[in-house]
Structure formats: C-alpha cells, structure tokens
Write a structure and sequence with these properties.
Four copies of one chain form a homotetramer. The first copy, chain A, is of the alpha/beta class. Chain A has two domains: 162 residues, 3-Layer(aba) Sandwich (Rossmann fold); 118 residues, N-(1-d-carboxylethyl)-l-norvaline Dehydrogenase, domain 2 (Orthogonal Bundle). Helix content of chain A is 53%, strand content 13%. In chain A, strands 1, 2, 3, 4, 5, 6, 7, 8 and 9 form a nine-stranded mixed beta sheet that branches. In chain A, β4, α4 and β5 form a beta-alpha-beta unit. Chain A is elongated, with a radius of gyration of 21 Å. Chain A starts with a strand and ends with a helix. The model of chain A has no long low-confidence stretch (mean pLDDT 96). Chains A and C meet through α12 and α13 of A and α11 and α12 of C.
C-alpha cells in the first residue's frame, strides 16, 4: 500500500517510520525538508509540497502540530486543496478542534475528495511502538480502507461517526484525565499535610481498584516535585476549557471538571503552564506556612 | 498461631474463614451467636462474650460494622476491657474514624494491653480472596507479630505510625475514589449528550493511561443505569465529608473533592443514598430535556 | 444638539424618547419603520437607512438587540459604513462582545470616523427613567462630546479606555451578579430545608450589611417560585461563560464563578433558560425527597 | 426593668451601657471584675459570680466570647445553674453552635428556668448604636418579656422557634456573606488583571442593583490590600464549614458555598486566618507572574 505523509514532527516521524518498517511505500513532506532525510534513508520518497504528495498518492495522512498548521497545509499555496480530487483520501491525525476539522472536511469534499479526521490518544512512546489509540470520524469507506495503516500506527482504531466526533471524544478523554489528576494531587497533598507518607499512598493506590498507569507513572515524580513536560499543563487546561464548552453547548453541568479547570488556571498563574500537567499539584500544595 | 475474632458480618466471616483455612486456631464471637455455626463446622471455637475471647487468646482481631459497634464491643459489659491486660494484643480492623480509634487505644493501653488499628481497603470479594489491603497503625511490635495473620487476610499490609493514621489514610484513598467517580460520571454523560457512545468511551479509556479496575468494573453497569450497592453512596459521601474535614484541620484547600462532595449530596437528595456510589452519575445526568 | 438614533426596541425607544424630551433633535431609524411613528409624534425625524442617518447627523447612537444586529447595521447595504467619514461619531450602546466591538471600531475608524462603545448596565425601567449606567470606551474626545446625551440617558457614565473595555467591564459586573444570585439561592434553600423561614431570612438580610436591591427585588418572588424574565437565565449563563473565558485569557482562577456557572448550566438542562436568572434557585432546590 | 448582664467584652460592654442609658437597672458580672468599673460609674451594680446575678435578677442576659465561655458560665462553680429556678429567665446572646445552645437549654429548663438563645448579627459599631439584629429562639414568653431590652440593643429582633434555630439562621446569613465576598473578590481581581480599574468597578457596582454596605465598606480597603480584622477570616471559614455541615444534614447541595469555603481554606494556608475575611481576595490574587 502506498501512502503520503505530511508532517514529520516527533509524532509524524515515528508514525511514518512505522509505516515504512511494515512495508508501506511512503512519500513524505515536511515544512523543513531536511527533516525528511532520515525517512529517505529508510526508503521513503520526498515531495516538495503537500500538493505534490496528494497528486502522487491515493491516500495521504497528515500529522501536524496544531490547528493553524493543519489549515495551512490544506489551504495555502502548494497545499492539499490544489490536487485533492475524486478518488483521493485525506486523513488528518493532528489534534485539532471540531471546527477546524469541519472546515477542512468541507474544503476536501467540496473538491470531490474524501476526508477522515483521526486524532490519537497517546504521545511519543506509543507513537514509536505503534500503540496509539485512533479516534477516527468522517468518511466511513475511507476509514475502512485506512485500516491497514491504522493497524500499524495504533493498537486500536475507533470509528465515531461524523467529522468532529473524533475531536470531541479526545476532549472528553482529556477532561477525565485532568479531573483525575486533580483528585490525585489533592490526595497526595492531603496525605502529606496530615502527617502520612505520600509515597505510601502511592503504594496503597497501586494495589487497589483505582490503580492506573497514569498514577503509577507520574506519582513518584510528583512526590519529588518533578514535572518533565510529557503533556504541557497549558494544553491540558485548554482541553478542559474546550470540554467545558462542549458541555455548555449541550447543557451538561460538570462541577468537578470546572473546579479542576480553575485549579489548572491557578497553576498557570503560578507560572507552571509549560511543565507537565501533573504540576497542578503545586497549586494544591502552595501555602505560606 | 491462635487468634480471637470478634464480628462475623460479611467481612468478618470471610476473614476468619481464611484464617481457619490457613491453619490458624480461631476462637470466634458474634453478637448473634448462631452466625458462628458455619465457622465452628470449619473448626472454630466459640465464646459467649468478647471478654472471654480476650481471656482465651493472646491476639484478638475485631471486624465490626461501625464506630458504635466497635466502641460497644470494647466498653460494654462483657467487653474487651474486662480482660485485656499486659501481654495481650487487640487489632481492630473495623472502619472507624480516628477519634473512635484513639478512644479505644487509650482504654486498651490504659489496662496494659497493646493496640493496632487496621482498617482495610477492599470489600467482600477481596476479603474472601485474602486480597485486602491493610492500613495498620499503633503498636509497632504488635503489628509485626500480627503479620502472619495479615498475610492471610490481605495481599499487603502497611504500618502507618500512630493510631489514627490508618483511619486517615483510608479517608484519603476514598476521597480520591469519590472524585474519580465524579470525573468518570461527567465524562460518560458528556459523551452521551454530545452524540457519542458512552460504551465506546469505556473502550477508549480502557486502552489508555487511565485504565483502572474501578472504571472497568462499574462503567458498563453505569451505562445501563444499574447501581447494585457494593459501597453505598451515602457512605462514600460521608467519607468525602470526613476527608474534607481532615483537610480543614490541616488547611488544605481541595476544590475538586469539595465539588465532588456536593455532587454526592445532590445524589442523596435525589434519593440515591442507598445505591452504589457510582449512582452519582444520575445527579450529572438529571435533566428535564 | 442633534443626534441620530438606530434601533427602537424596548431600550432604544425609551432612550430616544428621553433625548427628545430633553430638547435634542433626534433622527431615528428602525428596521421595522412603523416603530418610528410614536417617536415622530414627539418630534423625531425619520430616515430610511442607517446610512442616511449618518449622512444627516454628526453624532449617531445605536442600541441594537445583539452582536449580529450591531454588525448588520454597520456592514450591510445602506449601513453606517457607507456614510461614515471624518468628523462624524458613532456610539454603539448595544451589548456586544469585545470582538464585535473591535470589528466595528476598525471599520469606522478605517473610514476616518470616530467610535465609542457604550454598553449599559440597567434594563427597561432605568432606560425610561434616564438612570442607566454607561460603560463607555474608545475615542475619548467623542466620549466627551457625547456627555450631554449620556447625561440624559444615564445617571452616570464611565470612560474605560480602549474599545473592548466597556464589554469586559459589563461581563465582570454580571459575573459578580451571577455568583451572588447563587449564594442567595443556596442560602434560601438551606433555610427552608433546615426548618427555618426563607421569608424571615429575607427580612434579616435586608437589615444587615448585605442588603441590596437585587435581593430585595427578587427574593420574595423566588420564595414563591416565580421567575418573570427580567434578565433571562440563558443570557446570564452566557455572560458567566464569557467572564470565565476572560479569566482564562488572563490566568485568573475563579472557582466560585465556575461553580455558579455550572449551576446555571444545570438550570438550563432543567429547562429554565428562558426564565429569569433567579430561577437558578430551582437547580438548588431540586430533589426527589 | 431590672436585668443581669454576664460578660463585658467589646460587645457586652456596649450592650450593657445601652441598657443603662435607656433606664434599665443593670447588674453586671465579668470574669475580670475590674472591667465592671466603667459600668458602675454609669450606675450599674456588680456581683461576684454569675450565680449571684441570677439570684438577684429575674432576667439575665449573657454575651460571652465563645461556646466554651458560654458553657463555663452556666455549668462551673458559681455558675448560672446554681441559682436558676422557676420564674427566672436566661437569655444567651453569645454566638454558639446549635449543640451548645441545646445543652444550655436542657440544663436551664431542667431546673425550671426559661431559656432564650439570641445570637446577633452585627459587630462593635451596631452594638454601640443599639442597631444589632437579634436572632432569638426558645421560650416564646420569655422572648416577649425581653422585647423592651431587645428594642434597646437592636434595631430588630426575630423569634425563630425552637432552640438551635437562632444559631442556624446566623450560619446561613454568614454563609451567604462568605460566598458574596468571594464573588466580589473574583470580580475585583478579574477587573485588575484584565486591565480595568478595580476602583471604577466599585463605583459601577455602587450604582447598580447589587450595591450593598459590605461592598461599599470593604471594597476600597481590599483594593489597597488592607484587611483590618472586623470579622477574622478563620471564623468566617468556620461558619462556612458549619453551614455546609448543616446542608449535609439536610441533603442540600451547595456547590458555590463549597467553592467559597475552599477559597477561605486556601487563604488560611496562606497565613491570612487572623486578618479580616475580606483578605480572601489575596488567595484569588496570588500568582507568580
């Protein structure tokens, strides 16, 4: 199977490499072309614009850094729109809001192309290991044709219906994550301030019904006040805000998520926005006593 | 090793049975004596009062339903205090507040006895399987002498320092649980009201960094609005309140736990107090549209 | 002084009538022209488009129903932009968001015109009585030239600096109002459920340091579960959301406003969005016991 | 009319002085007897114990600093209980919890005496001016006989039914006050961080439907970060906690009060407990940017 691949950041590079390793013919493009070199050494072809990739390949996957980049790759000169046409499929796996996704969808399908949004759950390590979770939505037939690629990139792919649903599902997952992180932080601080060991609390949690990889992975470093940014706090807070906005649209009252969101905002005001989102514990800890 | 065992409710019966199966000589007592019969069939001896059990055994474990029962077994006529003395150890594994525990400790040690509080994390099934988590505190030497019994009853036992710490640690664990349950509930309802499948959300969560036995165990029944009471909502809410009071004592602000507590209170006002604590999702769901 | 006046809804009619009564020469326009009749009887002139009003008058005030109407009156055919030019001033007193205001400002000043935004605090009655509070921002000189008109329309006018600040200030005032309404609602319900009289609570509040016209005005009807819409709950909730968004922008954590916002959302989900915002008390009251 | 008066702190001294000025014969007692001197100069008699005051007077009013002092004056040697008997009335105007009040009531009525609890709303200045608000409950006939005294001490007295209701009503009033103070604080900080003047916000609020003596009185000093303790933050937080506990008892969910309570706890952890409760704004303000 032959696929195009736009965007070779941390995620995109790991993903396109996996496709190569599994026998896909891959044609890559990246804004900074030199980033393509390593992929070429492993057998990839290169094009000089997104439009050229689309022209060459029936299926093109994109993995871009943000909504702005995702729009630019489609709408700018030399962009996807110039060559997309009937028979071609465009799969955007970038994390974007539903509105951006709908805009891209409209443009692609307006030219006769097919579109799938496929944001992923998981960061660098799962991308390298082909263990992402893919939250796809849009053109059902294109989704099905993309399964061989998705099987290489992720451990599971979901088809969630109309365009926008992938983005929404991801927000909901991240909202639960943000509230859980606050619940966890409050517990660790309460243990400590009550004269108990927060490390022992980790051990106890690990043995019970709430044990989960996030607590196990982040707890020990949180107890050491170390927050290397796997998922920056400011992005987590942005996702909380967007999830709350989704609740607003649908008249769902979510007081726990709202409280968690305000805690993340407090953490931002304490200058922690660029640290890992687990740094929200600092907002709970903070005192002058 | 010979041990006394006071209280043969759901938990106590499973626990004393485990001790018998592992070769302990067990002398039991229960307010309703007929409940001892099954244990006797498996080799237990019976006494007619807590005092008699204490008299007979060097170590006595208690597993009573609430603080009131825990106090009564110690202080009432025929109670533990009548026979406790130097050389004897009393291990109360009931779930009680720190104050109750301290009161019992004072009385026991006042007579020369030794005391360990050992509330457990885990309910019926882990009790039967000897997979409880034991949060012990108090007399360190007695704790160490009790390890053979704890090893049968639980998969892990922790020694947490002075009496009261076991109770506090349990509150903190339950507080995290209550906030997590609310985070989970809000996510499931938001998915549903946003036109996404809350069952798919369960599948996605299950594959990611937040996967945990509680979500896996309770999610499917929550999506079917079924809440068979494993841990009644009103007890969960009480523990949230007590954990918040512990935070109050130590000047720890916990806005997420506070919001979760108010959601449990709303659920109580909706008549859901006797259902499982996962029924808090009904307070999130509730609407007139 | 001669002024144009665009928009003769409940607010605009009362305001332009006040200008006439105080000796201003007023030229009016309204989308439904027949609404101008009453004003003409009191001496107003009429034009057939916003552009004509602008052409005729050095100063034109607008009071439109929402951001959409405010934009349309400026940008559509026959709109303000067609005639605005150096020497002319446009004062938009509609309640719009900062973004809309900035857009209008840019267009007006791009043509050499001058712009003031002047959202008001106060509804029908204060408009009729000339007792509005005017939150103006934008062109300082135009603001000063407008004072004779503002003195007729309101009891006080504030100049708040750059365009957008009027809209922001209004959001902040409404945010405080929404949180206060929730504080009040929780108190009334708590009194009632605790076996105290919520009417007596009103009397007590009225005598103390918290007495305010809102509690006095709305309390008695809230205790009778009556919520005739002076300010619809869904608009109050929208303003809470926008104020929280303003806090998000500036990293201000506002947990009380966030909790109040979620209560308003719950009220919306209970079908109360079109009632007065004091109906949020129904979300507090709601129980099944 | 002749009355006894126990307790001559800031409040009690001002109150007993008012009684003297209005022609009451007053017999006073205070733990530190020298504090009685000023009253004696104005015509008061003195007794050496609460019991003696009770013996001498048909009606005795108490105004003590806290529940502990209120209990001590009744139950200790030389206390009220030694002389209270049929025909005598005891009116405790101290601020105590419902439980303390019930305990005193039981003891007094057990001896045949009559009891009214009458906590007040208002601090030093209203006490001096005879402008307190009296929240009375208990013996209705005694309440009515006390009205001449209450008319001197306060601007209004309420009879709220059974003993405990006075204490509860006061908690509810203070809960509303605490939430309002947080709403106000969040608004002031949001204005400031959004580039608006928080002093102008005060002016705008003062002109609108939310204007109230508390905002007017405390706003200007809050904007100057000055918090001379009229009502200490730690006491306000304690009242919030007790009001939330009252809600817990009656299954009333109060998310806004709960969020406000957590903000006061955060303020305590920042070392602000002894300042005025308006210092909670510091918890909102706090940032590292």
């Amino acid at each position: 199977m032959e696929v195009g691949f736009l965007g070779l950041g941390i995620m995109g590079k790991a993903m396109s490499m996996n496709l190569l390793k599994h026998g896909f013919k891959v044609t890559v493009w990246n804004r900074t072309l030199s980033k393509c070199d390593e992929l070429v050494e492993h057998g990839a072809s290169v094009c000089e614009s997104p439009a050229e990739v689309i022209k060459k390949c029936k299926y093109t996957i994109a993995m871009l850094s943000d909504p702005c980049a995702a729009l630019s790759v489609v709408f700018d000169k030399g962009g996807v729109l110039e060559q997309i046409c009937e028979g071609k499929g465009y799969i955007d796996m970038s994390t974007v809001d539903a509105e951006t996704s709908l805009k891209i969808n409209e443009a692609i399908t307006g030219k006769g192309g097919r579109f799938v949004e496929g944001p992923v759950s998981g960061s660098k390590k799962p991308a390298e290991d082909g263990q992402l979770i893919i939250l796809a939505a849009g053109d059902k037939a294109l989704f099905e044709e993309s399964i061989p690629a998705f099987d290489v990139l992720g451990k599971r792919s979901f088809f969630l219906g109309q365009v926008g649903n992938g983005a929404k599902m991801k927000l909901i997952v991240n909202m639960i994550m943000g509230s859980m992180m606050n619940a966890f932080s409050e517990g660790l601080v309460l243990a400590d301030k009550s004269g108990l060991s927060s490390d022992t609390l980790l051990d106890i949690l690990d043995l019970g019904a709430m044990t989960n990889p996030m607590f196990k992975g982040k707890g020990p470093s949180m107890n050491k006040s170390s927050y290397p940014p796997a998922f920056p706090l400011k992005h987590q807070q942005k996702d909380m805000r967007l999830a709350l906005a989704l609740g607003d649209e649908n008249a769902v009252s979510m007081p726990v998520a709202a409280a968690a969101n305000e805690a993340f905002k407090k953490a931002r005001s304490l200058g922690l926005g660029d640290l890992d989102f687990s740094a929200v514990i600092e907002a709970v800890k903070f005192s002058r006593e």
